[in-house]
Automatic annotation (TrEMBL):
<dbReference type="InterPro" id="IPR036523">
    <property type="entry name" value="SurE-like_sf"/>
</dbReference>
<dbReference type="GO" id="GO:0000166">
    <property type="term" value="F:nucleotide binding"/>
</dbReference>
<comment type="function">
    <text>Nucleotidase that shows phosphatase activity on nucleoside 5'-monophosphates.</text>
</comment>
<comment type="similarity">
    <text>Belongs to the SurE nucleotidase family.</text>
</comment>
<feature type="domain" description="Survival protein SurE-like phosphatase/nucleotidase">
    <location>
        <begin position="3"/>
        <end position="195"/>
    </location>
</feature>
<feature type="binding site">
    <location>
        <position position="96"/>
    </location>
    <ligand>
        <name>a divalent metal cation</name>
    </ligand>
</feature>
<dbReference type="InterPro" id="IPR030048">
    <property type="entry name" value="SurE"/>
</dbReference>
<keyword id="KW-0963">Cytoplasm</keyword>
<protein>
    <recommendedName>
        <fullName>5'-nucleotidase SurE</fullName>
        <ecNumber>3.1.3.5</ecNumber>
    </recommendedName>
</protein>
<feature type="binding site">
    <location>
        <position position="43"/>
    </location>
    <ligand>
        <name>a divalent metal cation</name>
    </ligand>
</feature>
<dbReference type="GO" id="GO:0046872">
    <property type="term" value="F:metal ion binding"/>
</dbReference>
<keyword id="KW-0479">Metal-binding</keyword>
<keyword id="KW-0547">Nucleotide-binding</keyword>
<feature type="binding site">
    <location>
        <position position="8"/>
    </location>
    <ligand>
        <name>a divalent metal cation</name>
    </ligand>
</feature>
<dbReference type="Pfam" id="PF01975">
    <property type="entry name" value="SurE"/>
</dbReference>
<dbReference type="GO" id="GO:0004309">
    <property type="term" value="F:exopolyphosphatase activity"/>
</dbReference>
<feature type="binding site">
    <location>
        <position position="9"/>
    </location>
    <ligand>
        <name>a divalent metal cation</name>
    </ligand>
</feature>
């Protein structure tokens, strides 16, 4: 199997090392693992692409490239340039530092890369490591992802639903904020929503008097709906959420017919 891996934390991120370990195990001794990742951290860029400016690509080693662009850019660079003659069979994005459960999925560059791969007709999985009080003192912050990453991916590759329609399925995997020994198992879950904790801004002034705004987050331990991704994560389960790039609110189409003339 030929696997492309990327992330949004950057090519030097520790989670990418974990992703490489998992990818090599899946690819097997006759397979290939290619790394095409952002040259610098690109957290929170979602499915952004560098549409109005060029991006520099630097080869760091054999099958290893740094792209001055977003995670989705990395997928485009790989599929249409770097690997144009050796198209990947699978794209793995991550392992992200921090969770991409609930509303975080909307902002995630990690998920943006998997979404772009799906739009390119390639099977894709995004992987993220939830952090919390139970993991803050671990020597290896990616312990749980290391322990359950390969098992989870093999389950998905062997038993997951993969489609070849216009908006193909891709998967969002989040490893729970507990030590590996406390993981309860794997659960299929819908995307949750943490109420009263959205992103905001905080104003600060520089020494020169200029005013800047910092984006602020909120505690990630807020409960979400029963059976959602963040809910099962906080209960110690690895969450697996099937996703599509189709943003249509299909449940509203029929009621909305009333506005048609």
């Amino acid at each position: 199997m030929r696997i492309l891996i990327t992330n949004d934390d950057g090519i030097n991120a520790p989670g990418l090392v974990v992703m490489e370990e998992i990818a090599k195990a899946i690819a097997g001794k006759n397979g290939e693992v290619w790394v095409v990742a952002p040259a610098f951290e690109q957290s929170g860029v979602g499915h952004c692409i560098s549409y109005t400016q060029p991006m520099m690509v630097s080869q760091m080693a054999e099958r290893r490239y740094a792209v001055q662009g977003s995670p989705a850019d990395c997928v485009l660079a790989a599929v249409h340039d770097i690997m144009v003659d050796t198209r990947p069979d699978l794209v793995l994005s991550g392992v992200n530092r921090g969770n991409n459960s609930a509303e975080n999925a909307v902002y995630s560059g990690t998920i943006g890369a998997a979404m772009e791969a799906a739009l390119q007709g390639i099977d894709a999985i995004a992987l993220s490591q939830y952090y919390g009080p139970a993991t803050k003192d671990l020597t290896d912050q990616f312990e749980t992802a290391r322990a359950y990453g390969l098992k989870t991916l093999r389950q998905l590759l062997d038993h997951g639903v993969w489609t070849d329609d216009d908006y193909g399925i891709f998967y969002n995997v989040n490893f729970p904020p507990v030590p590996a020994k406390d993981v309860q198992g794997i659960r299929v879950a819908h995307q949750g929503f943490r109420r009263d904790m959205g992103f905001g801004v905080q104003a600060q002034h520089s020494p020169s008097g200029r005013r800047f705004l910092w984006i602020t987050g909120a505690p990630q331990q807020q409960p979400t709906s029963q059976g959602s991704d963040a809910d099962v994560n906080l209960k110690g389960y690895v969450s697996v959420t099937p996703m599509r790039a189709d943003l249509t609110a299909h449940d509203i189409l029929s009621p909305l017919k009333a506005i048609e003339l």
